[in-house]
Queue: 2 jobs
Job 1
Amino acid sequence: MYRDSPDRLGGESSSVEFSRKIFVNCGGGGYGIFNHSVWNGLTVADVVFPWFAFVMGEALVLSLNARLRTSLPRFTAFGQVARRSLFLALIGICLGSINVSWANVRLPGVLQRLAAMYLIVGALECAFMRTSQNITPEI
């Protein structure tokens, strides 16, 4: 339905990466390839966080650029970034508090760090992103 729209950004890769991140953090189904390496190797589990951060940063820049070009006020765009960052941090806190007492909840978790990174980069992009391409036709 929305896939044919040229204005819509594909969110499938972000949701797949989010699902993969949760899968790896919950033990990876017992498969050895999804275990973190001790210190001298590289496995799939070791590249999930950087890849998710990259995909999240690309999606942030592309979506903010599209929204700011439609004359959305920068303050409104920052409000949306702050709201998404808060929701991401709350999801991380909720997932980290499963089967743990509230006294032992780990607040500086992975999703909370991604939320902080999303908030910082989103604030910088809202403040400094150019909304015009500055393309001049050749004569």
Note: The radius of gyration is 18 Å.
Job 2
Amino acid sequence: MSLGSPWLLLCLTILHIGPFQWLVGNGHRTDLWQNCTTSALGAVQHCYSSSVSEWLQSVQATMILSVIFSVLSLFLFFCQLFTLTKGGRFYITGVFQILAGLCVMSAAAIYTVRHSEWHVNNDYSYGFAYILAWVAFPLALLSGIIYVILRKRE
């Protein structure tokens, strides 16, 4: 596994929790933190905080946990890279990467099931950050499994 792979996954993880679009449509852009009204040209006119629903807070928390687990995985990879003996496996790194993937999956699944309570109109479509969350889930899971299988060479 190359050294660029953990960086790519970390960037994907951070991108899908930032102030980006999880739902788009009907003059609105919605993410995990705020709802914005947009003009016909796409310029943001007014933003207000997202709902204080328990399900949305659980989505926010699990996405933050996924970033924490990804950062820990990256840090532990570099630590294990210099401390593991020849032939050792990156178990700890893999476990944290798998946990990050499971947190992303949990958050995206909760959002998929519950967003209809928040936006009752059917004029909405999923935004790119929502799709990135579902793309990051299998990538994080796969990289975690590869870390567990990976052996250190001299």
Note: The chain has a mean pLDDT of 78.
